[in-house]
Every structure is written in structure tokens, then in C-alpha cells.
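Table S2 (continued). Query chain:
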Amino acid sequence: MPTGGSSAVLVERRKLLEQLDDLLTQSARGRGAIAAVSGSTAMGKTTVLNALAERATAAGATVLGVVSSPHEREVPYSALAQLFHALDARSVPPVAGDDSLAAAQHTYQVIAALAARCPLLITVDDIQHTDTASLSCLRYVAQRLTRLPVALVFTRGVTVEEQPSRILHDLLYRTSVRRFHLGPLSRAGIRELAPAPAPSASAGSALPSDRFFAEIHTLSGGNPLLAQALIEEHRLRAAPESGAGPASSECEGAGPLPEGGVPIGPLFHQAVLAYLHRIGPRAVLLARCVALLDEAATPLLLSRLSGIDTELLKRYLRLLTGIGVLSGARLRHAGVRQAVLGEMPHEEATALRYRAARLLYDSGAPPQAVAVQLLGAGPLHEDWALGVLREAACQALDDGDVQRGIRCLELARECCSDEGQRLSVKSQYACGQWQLRPADSAPHFLALKAPILEGKLAGHDALWVAEGMLFHLNFDEALLAVEYLNDGDEEMATALHGTRMLMASEVPGLLDRLSRPLPATAAPAMSHSELRARHALALVLERGADEYALALAEQVFRSSQNAVTSQLSSLPKALLALCYADQLDAAAKWHDQLAGDAGRHDAPAWRAQIACVGALVALRRGRLADAVRQAEAAYARLSGPRWNVSSALALAILIEAHTAMGDHQAAAGYLAPEPPPELFFTRAGLHYLYARGRHHLATGKTYLALSDFQGCGSLMRRWNIDTPALAPWRLGEAEAWLRLGDRERAARLVEKQLARPDTGLSRSRGMALHGLALVQATAQQPPILRDAFRLLEGSGARYEAAAVLADLSRAYQQLGDKRARPTARRAWRLAKSCQAEPLCQELLPTSAPRSIGTGGSAESLGGDRADQGGFGGLSESERRVAMLAAQGYANREIADKLFITVSTVEQHLTRVYRKMGIRNREQLLQGAHAVSYESA
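Corresponding output:
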């Protein structure tokens, strides 16, 4: 501790010491004096008494000291024995059973004899703990001091609950007694507690700032013990790790005040514990009760839990609040709370927590507050405890605190008294585990299959388990459970209808495997958002951009504004409904809002599903890098030892996005694991087949691509969800037939797609028109491509729009239309914004050493120089500048992109023109694009 601590306290107490010095002087002249110094615990009373004793000894007086202890309070003459032993080892103090008057007279005679030789100072520290027999003798002496050179100085701790005994009251409140009170230190006094820097110390070792000491004054309430602990805490924190001394600081002091204020650490925590123990066992018990109840603490509950009288408890609360330990009925610092709880014996803590839980329950406290106590105590086999834990778990899951909800359910499972209760809790626990660790939750659902089939687990609990099995592709088990529950019970009709909607939208391949169809009842108007979202998604998959389905999805979003976490499972389905309705801008808007709110919910599964759907929306809007980022995050959370419907969707998005970006190696890596057969009963399986087909097509495996597109189409037709917004398999198959040279088959597929009813899917129709243009003669392509571009641009599908522009620029080029070049530049920039590198490469001028004049354009560029027209004769720096110039960038833009000066760009272009045999940028653009389009 700081070496200057005691002297600093005395600086604050200087006036008191001067007054006590006067009493010593008075007593030395033969006029006895008595003084009483009072103050609360750890205010420095003993320090003052010791300083006075040192001064008296220095002045030639004899000092006799007594330190009273609560452990000796019931031992007669224990305090007086300390006096006699200090006087003379041969002196025999009074003992129990001696006549009290005779003992008092003997004590007086001994003191008077000693005072006849020299002035005498008798100090008694903590006189409130002195035994009654000794107090009686001291009172006798005090009554006869007027002509003796004796000073009696007592310190008395101001206790919360004890009133002084009659004898002590008579002693302390005699008219001749001078009474002093030690209050808290001021800010200036606290500043003096800090050790003064050594003369050789660096400038960074100066005292901290006034703000620092002001905060210590607030935190400690002016209590020297607590203030010293805080100063030492700061000193240790400020010192560098090497231990060479205090760290240098900004401005003044040992560093600026930390962002959170004065550091609160173990030294302060231990000082508070020491302070509590010095006050007494009731203060310790009260602190433990406050720590246990925490936010639920009220004076009434604390009184009942601790057994301390209400009025006495209020006095303790005021005392502890005054020194900054409490704020109201709560401990101010979490570290102090942990320290108080940490020193509690386990048996005492358990008993107190059980009692606290029952008191809270009986007083109508929220289940979460009661559950906190039960979680700390362990299983309690009482019916009320089980109900509280389940309610607290539901509330925790609603609030997004999934881990806490699972802890409540784990304890609830141990509190169950019968099998039915335990199975119901296990069902709830499985759902909680899915929310926390979706990829690893399959065993929790599978473990409940047998109880469902045995009739031990029924109703909604059983249906949740069946749906969990569907998620993990455990179809045989899930179908057995659903079949068992589909027994015609009218109360389960709505819930089973919800399962039917889930199967229709997530695992449509299973519907025809049911021996008896699930109820198809209309959802009631007051149905919850999950059922509405499932209904909306199933309708969109069947009917396209159905107005009723979109209205249902909008309702789900509107109702989610203040939704609890457990109600958020509907939102990914509602987002998918918008996505499959080609409402990409609306889907992006809602996704961004939901993603922004995701931090409020500790629900990993829900956040992963939102990210997965967000990746699909980003993919369809041409934001390929965003799609990869979000899909990777979702896949990392959702993938595990077994496939599931959500991880498969994330995987399909990654394959399709990487393929569009030209990273075929990454796409192939995601295709490496063998998909389970169960995947191809799911909607996610359709995405997987389509994405794999795109990858095969991009890597030249046309027949494999054809097989994937045809397989995808066969399943979609069989399941009656043949919507191109899900997977445009006909267009993929048509593209494959075009690669194989069968234009007629390709044309028939595109025409079939366009012949289907217009269901309001603008992106899908734009893609179909693009396919139609590709099977037409070049002269017929531009108007169809322009219509396709308008639809795709309007729906926000930038990647597909860029592909349309690329084909439109080629058609213009082949037709000799001057719009070819600006259309190509626009296509390139749009493709670049999507990070679609293969599409960009198709639009870039070739870097191979081929002639610009191919196809008869050499005459316009100067035939005798045509052999110099390629980019191959350029240096690497010249080629970079030429390629950017060919893409339409101005000199300043090229300079910024390549981090060179505009002058350097101009010099490179001059050399490019000379080597290529052209005169200006216009000829560079014409020649470069001619090479690009003719090679495509």
C-alpha cells in the first residue's frame, strides 16, 4: 500500500490532533482529561489514537493501550487485564468473581501510583466492545481524575444496530468528556492518500488529475480504506508490464482517466469485503442477500431473506449506500457482487437461494427472477419450480437469450416428477438447441421419435419434434411421427395444416408419401405469423406473384416490428416469398431492416437463416460478392455432420455465385461432398441441381448440365411448383442444347416457358425473353433483348441485365449498328459492378496478338499497318492503359485507377497509337471492340 497513507489521513485530521494535544497538556498539569473519538468503521480512529500515543510518548508520558474485541466482550476484566500486564508483569488483574467495587478501587490505586511518577495516557480502542466489568472500573477511575495527570482517550465505532450499555453511556456522556467525531475524508484528503512521486521520477509519475480523485471520492464515500484500495488499483494498472514504474501519461497524472472511470478491481473488491466483515456478521449476511437477489432486491424481500428487522435493515442500507457500496438496494459494482458471492460457503448459498426463490415466487416476482435463484441452487422437486423454469425458458427464448433459456430447460428436466413432464421439456429443449446450434441438434429430435410413436409425447410438442426431423432430412422418422399425429383430432387440425404448408414449401417431395393427406383447412384470421408465412411461401411457389400471398408476407413483416425472438422464424419464409415473386427490391429492403435488428437477438439459427435468404436475394440482384459473404456466414453456422435444408440452400447459392464470378475451383470445392438422396425431396435440392447445372455448363460439361436441368424440371413439375422464379430450368436446358447445336430444341423450351401463364414474375419473364432472343436470327434479336433488359433492370436483376446488354452489343456489332460500342461499355460496367469476371472478360478487348482488321475493318484503319493492330506488341504498362481507354475511361480516371500521373497516361497512349498504327482514341475504341465481338 502507499507509504504515505497514514500521514495523509492525519493531514485531514490535523485539527482533531491539535485538540487532543491540548488535552494531554491539560492532563500533564494535574488536571485529568477524558476524550471520546467516534466514527463509523474504517474511518481512521485507530490511526488517530496511535498518532496521539506516539506524541504522548515523545512528550515523556507513559502510554497504556487497550484494544477491545467483540470476542472478549463476555470475558470479565479482559480489557483491564491488558492494562495490568502493560504496567507490570507481576501485577495481578481482577478476575471473575471478584468484588466489583474492590476491583475498581484497586485499579484506581494502581493508576494513581503510576501517575504520581509521570503523566499517563490510557487509550481504549473500540470501547464499544469492552467487557462490562472493565467498563465499570474505567468509569470509577474517570470519576476521580480531576487531580491526576491522567488522560483517558477512547475510540468508539458507531454501530448500526447496537446502542451503548448503561455503563458505557455514563462513561462517554459525562460532562467532562470531550467528544469528537471522524467523518469521511474530503476530496483534498483523498488526494493526500496518493503516494508522492519520488524526486527522480519521470514527469509521467505526477499525481493523477482532480477528476480522478473526485471519482474516487464518489466511489468510496470518503472511506479511507476503500479510497486507498482504489488508488492502489490505479497505480498498479498504470505501471508498465515491466514493473519499471508508473507509465507515462498524457497531460497530467499516471495516464488519462480510463474510459469507464476509475478502475475497479480485486483490491477494491477485497477492501469492501474486509469493510463488511469489520462492521459485523449481519452486514455480511445483508450483503450476501443483496448479491443473491440482485435486481429483484427490495428492502422487504431483503428483510425476509436475511431475518433482519426492517428498520434495522434500512439503517444498514443507508450506511452501505453512503460509502458507495450500494446503490439503492443493489451492489454498485459487479465485481463486488462476485466477490461477495464467491466467499459464501456452498451450503449457505444453496439454502439462501432456495429461500430467495420461494420468497420471490410467493411475492409474484417474474419467472426470470425466480429462475435465477433456482439456477444457482440446483434441482428442486416441487411443482411450482418446474412451472417457473419453463415459463422463464420461454421468456428467455422470446427475449433472444437462447443460452439462458436452455439452462432453464436443463434444470427443468431435472425437476420433473413424471415422464410426461420430462418429455415435454425435452421437446422444448430440442427446439432451443436447434436455435442455438442448428447443425448439431438432430439427435435431440431423433431421441423423441419413440415417445411420439408410443403416445407419450403428443400435441404441439410432438409436432415441433417432427418438423425438426424434417429440417435435418430425417424423413422416415418424421413421416412416422406426422402420420401418428394425423389421427383426425380437430384440435390439431390447424397445427397439422401448418405442417402441411411447411412440407409444401420446404420438402414438397414428401407430400405424396403420406398415407393420409394432412388437413387442408383454411387458416383462421387470427393465425400466428409462422402459419401466414408458410402459407405465403407455398402459394408463391405454386402460383407465382400471387397478390394474396404477397399481402400475407407483408402482414408478417408488419407484425414483426416488435416481435419476440421466438416469433422470428416466420421472417425467412416471408422473405423467400418475396424473392420467389421476383420482388427483389422489396425483399432487399426488408432483409436490410431485419439484418440491422439481428443484433438484438441472440438467436444464431434465425440469424443464419436470414443471412441465407439475404444471400439468395443478393445473388438475384447481381451482388455476387455479397451473396458469397452472406452464404458463407450462413453455411458456417448451419453446416454440420449431416446435411439439412438450410445448409443445402446456402451451399447452392455459393456454387451459383462462385460460378457467375468465374471462381470455378471454389464452386467445385462446394460440389465435392456427395449430397444425400433425401436432398432431392426438398426445395433446396432444386436450387442445388440448378446451381450444379450452371457450374457444369460454365466448365464445358454440357451433357452433365443437361441432366441436372432436366432432373430439376422433372421434380418441379411432379411437385406442382414449376415456377421459373425458383429455378429457371427450361432456360438452362435451352442454353445447354444451344451449346450442343440443337437450336430447335432450345427454341421449343423457351417457347414453352413463355407460353406459361404470366404470373407477374418480371425477372423470370425478362430472362425468358433473353433466351428467346438467342434462338432468333440476329436481325430479330435487338428489340427482344431491349424488352428483356427493361424487365430485368426494373426488377433489380443486374447480373442478368448485364448479360442481356452483352448479347445486345454483339447483335449490334454484327448488324453494323453504331450502338454496339456504348452498349458494350455499359454492359462491362454493369458486369464489373456485379463482379462477374467471366462476363467482363467476354466484353474486354483481347490481349492476344491478333489483328484488329479481322472481318474487313482493316481498310478503315489503314491496311498497311493492320499487322501491328493487336495489343500483343505493347508493354504491360501500355496494355493496361490501352485496355482502360478501350473501356471508355478518361485519362484522369485511368491515372487514378493505376496510381500514375495524367501525363504518364498521355505518354503511354502516344506510344500505343504509334505501335498500333492508329491516330486517336476513337480508332482505339473501334478496333478494340471489333476484336472483342468477333472473337466471341
